[in-house]
Amino acid sequence: MIILWSGVCVSLKMLILVYAAETDLRPNIVIIMADDMGWGDIGANWPETVDTPNIDSLAREGLRLTDFHAGASVCTPSRAALLTGRLGLRTGLTKNFGPDSLGGIPTNETTIAEILSSAGYRTAMLGKWHLGTRPGHHPLDKGFHSYLGVPYSVDMGCADPPGMNFPLCPGCPEDNSVYHCASALSNCIMDPALPLYSNRSIAHQPVKLADLATMYAEFASNFIRSTSSVPYFLYAALSHMHVPLAHGHRYDNVTRRGEYADTLRELDGLVASILSAVKQTNNNTLFWFTTDNGPWEEKCGLSGSVGPFIGMWQASPMGGGGGAVAKKTIWEAGHRVPSIIYWPEHTEAGTVSNALTSSLDILPTLAMLAGVKIPGDRYFDGVDMTSVITGSAHSIREVLFHPHSGNGKEGEIGAVRIGSYKVVYYTGGVPDCFGHSGPAQSHADSPLVFKLDVDPSESSPLEHNSSEYVVATELARMALRSLQDSIRADNTSTVDYSRSHDGWVCCNKNSPICRCPWD
Ligand SMILES: *[C@@H]1O[C@H](CO)[C@@H](O)[C@H](O)[C@H]1NC(C)=O
Ligand SMILES: *[C@@H]1O[C@H](CO)[C@@H](O)[C@H](O)[C@H]1NC(C)=O
Ligand SMILES: *[C@@H]1O[C@H](CO)[C@@H](O)[C@H](O)[C@H]1NC(C)=O
Ligand SMILES: *[C@@H]1O[C@H](CO)[C@@H](O)[C@H](O)[C@H]1NC(C)=O
Ligand SMILES: *[C@@H]1O[C@H](CO)[C@@H](O)[C@H](O)[C@H]1NC(C)=O
Ligand SMILES: *[C@@H]1O[C@H](CO)[C@@H](O)[C@H](O)[C@H]1NC(C)=O
């Protein structure tokens, strides 16, 4: 390993492949990313939550990161940041794709799956992709050898049964004529039914949401258990906890506290089942659980817990005047996400790290562990955080950028972390459960500064005349300027966000909702 890591430049790939055929000491890697799950949805983070016994025990056996952030606060850019190690300002992936989008992840943006597969890893993905559906943008085009999952969010097309949403969705019509009868509920059935891909073919359309967890568990287990002399990489992008919420019958009313709690139990069980396949086969496996962004508050009781990150300034009439403080925003509950790493003999059981870290760091970290270099023809926003994982460092960075993911400012840097200070430039404009969204405001001329170590609820901005304010805003200004310089000098990509019915995924062109296979 040491020889590999020192990076001798003679065909590193050949060396790895030869080495791998002997005994491969490189770890297997499992990244699990849940959808729209709150920082407070995990008991290990927030004791009020009692529905994640297995994830909590994972935290007791591994390392819990308390200050870990998604690369954006909505789906597409967050997933892109994880897979590429780069901010949306570089990859062009700054906002969500729709089910009829023509574009996808740019072909010359390199994913961690491409890097690991070129280093000899077996790779697989399950779950939500949301980085394009057209040819060239499929997971199998971006480094994954096998795939089972849905191409975008589970609310982007009807399903049988419909699952719990707010407002409620109807199930897919059996009769195609219904499709053309626009009704108050028509939003839910304007798009073709939700498809389930198995590699490049559509296995079901509509998918049965209630069966997804079982199918994903089986796919993961088969992949993990298949024998091979090379290590593997599994990226499991779970559909839970995004609306419409659905779970197998086994979880019906198990908590007696409603659909969200029951679905969270199923997610916890799915994580446990993937972990058990890992433990039974090979313990040299880095198992990493995280989520893409915080709760979708517009969905009211069907959205998760923000924990202590209640975004009080935004919520207050004296501050932002109400509106969302989680998904789509730059507030902590939007981008600070659960992150737990289990890697026996490398992470110490039951440790907690407050290092400022990000899902942008996943690509550089995994490349390091696989003994490969990251591409040299572009800049990365993530950094290798192996030292934090193994406990040999308490910090890897002082500065982290949080892009906005709503209110028309998608991709723009809405807040900058400088140590424990958070400098905020844009607030408001994102609806909460009551449909309120405080006015979208720019604070570019006099940003708000919160001191997160003493004010995690972001309630009281520092006085503008305090020396802390002056130092934090000046450091943030310099950090932003150097980010802009690096983006200007970088190879950046552009993304086609146009939408047309040509983008629709349909296994049966004769049916508007694409019901198939027929049975
Ligand atoms: C997907 O493709 C891979 C690689 O060819 C193959 O091993 C796997 O069995 C395929 N999966 C399905 C469900 O066809
Ligand atoms: C769930 O259990 C509670 C408490 O026993 C009961 O009141 C409720 O009707 C049940 N709900 C469903 C959907 O079965
Ligand atoms: C992995 O570790 C667990 C817990 O120590 C142990 O029960 C299991 O047998 C180990 N698995 C393998 C494949 O060695
Ligand atoms: C951009 O790509 C070109 C061509 O691959 C390469 O020569 C150049 O060094 C790259 N720029 C950066 C900043 O890496
Ligand atoms: C800063 O301004 C606040 C409110 O305007 C005032 O109460 C405080 O005394 C000032 N502090 C300094 C250090 O000037
Ligand atoms: C990808 O290709 C586009 C168009 O050729 C180019 O502008 C961009 O810099 C490339 N990105 C990278 C990361 O090389």
UniProtKB/TrEMBL annotation:
Keywords: Calcium, Hydrolase, Metal-binding, Signal. InterPro entries: Alkaline_phosphatase_core_sf (IPR017850), Sulfatase (IPR050738), Sulfatase_CS (IPR024607), Sulfatase_N (IPR000917). Residues 1-20 form the signal peptide. GO terms for molecular function: arylsulfatase activity; metal ion binding. Its cofactor is Ca(2+). The keyword Calcium applies. It holds the Pfam family Sulfatase. It comes from the Eukaryota. Residues 27-372 form the Sulfatase N-terminal domain. Belongs to the sulfatase family. PANTHER family: ARYLSULFATASE FAMILY MEMBER, ARYLSULFATASE G. This is Arylsulfatase G. It comes from Cryptotermes secundus.
